[in-house]
Amino acid sequence: MVLSAVALAPFMAPAIGISLGTIAGTVGFILQSLGSLSIGSLIVFLCGMVSGWAVHLLPQRIYTQAILHSRFTWPDFIVLALGAGLTAFLIVRSPHQKPLVTSIAIAYELYLPAGVAGFGLSSGIGTLWLDGTNLFITHLVWAALIGVLALSFLGLRPINATGYLLGMGYLAAGLVALTLIYPPQPPVMPSAQAGNTAGVEIQRSTSTPPIGASPTISPTATQPTATITPTVTPTRTLVPTKTPTMTITSVPTPVWARISATEGNGALVRAEANYNASVVSSVLNGTLVEVLPEVVTNGGVAWVHIRLVNGKEGWIVRSLLRTATPAPSW
Q1: What is the distance between the alpha carbons of residues 62 and 80, in angstroms, rounded to a whole number?
Q2: Last residue of a domain, one of 125, 147, 181
Q3: How many CA atoms lie within 13 A of 28 on its CB side?
Q4: What does the DSSP assignment read for 136-195?
Q5: Which range marks the domain in which residue 294 is found?
Q6: What is the pLDDT of residues 16-73, one digit of tens each?
Q7: pLDDT in tens, 31-44
Q8: Do residues 282 and 165 share a domain?
Q9: CATH number of residue 281's parent domain
Q10: Nearest Cα to 268, choosing from 125, 123, 55, 135?
Q11: Does residue 26 sit in the same domain as residue 146?
Q12: Are 170 and 141 in contact (CB under 8 A)?
């Protein structure tokens, strides 16, 4: 439904209008374009809020598409860059024709995060509303900057200092968003290979068994008239030795799994083993998680206790995990 709304959205003239206002150095025209764009974004935002209220009626659904469109990805950025750049280029080259096809790319990258922000605000799923709002602002800033660069390439450069200052402001805000709001993800820990054995700690006894002589006295009997002289005859006997023992301490091998949701591109990690529990985090397909021993069955659904690479722990439906070797209790 959202994709259909994007395809039917009017020509995204306000988004390119921000770039044109920057070239002209006219703050009033930029504010007018922002106001027009805000009206369409507000409509999409309210529609997202209506959809978010339905979450309370369908608590067992996994809203991975909403999570996906609240995060910055380079494929989406490339689509936004092509849409903004080509739209600005075509407007200058053919001012009497509206480039509707390239305009759809801009609407897709602006309206979807706005709808996700409204959806997250009314559904209460984690920080989804904040993530969608940040992504909407980030895409809007970069769309304006790319439009300015495309117009400058065609020879339409800022005509005053205000235009240059605004362009530098777009660039600074865009770089701050990419480095602070969407920093590079840490490397994923490698998964445990099948067939690994448990680690052992071997402790060997270092005591040396001593062999000592135990003297015994053997009296020698002689004639009654003779004196009895005791003699000492040393007899070598073996003392029981200590046999070196091997102590094996078993350390459980961590079980790793990857998120593999067939319906959508990710899953939600909850604080408890039920669908109504609060959301700890959202993870995309392919994300590596550590499977902990606890498994709970609630309402006929098996939940598994997991730990994320950032140290957070939570519960996830077992059918959404794929492991190289099954967990011991599965």
Answers
A1: 27
A2: 181
A3: 0
A4: HHHHHHHHHHHHHHHHHHTT---SSHHHHHHHHHHHHHHHHIIIIISPPPPPPPPPPPTT
A5: 255-323
A6: 899 999 999 999 999 999 999 999 899 999 998 998 888 777 755 667 788 888 889 9
A7: 999 999 999 899 99
A8: no
A9: 2.30.30.40
A10: 125
A11: yes
A12: yes
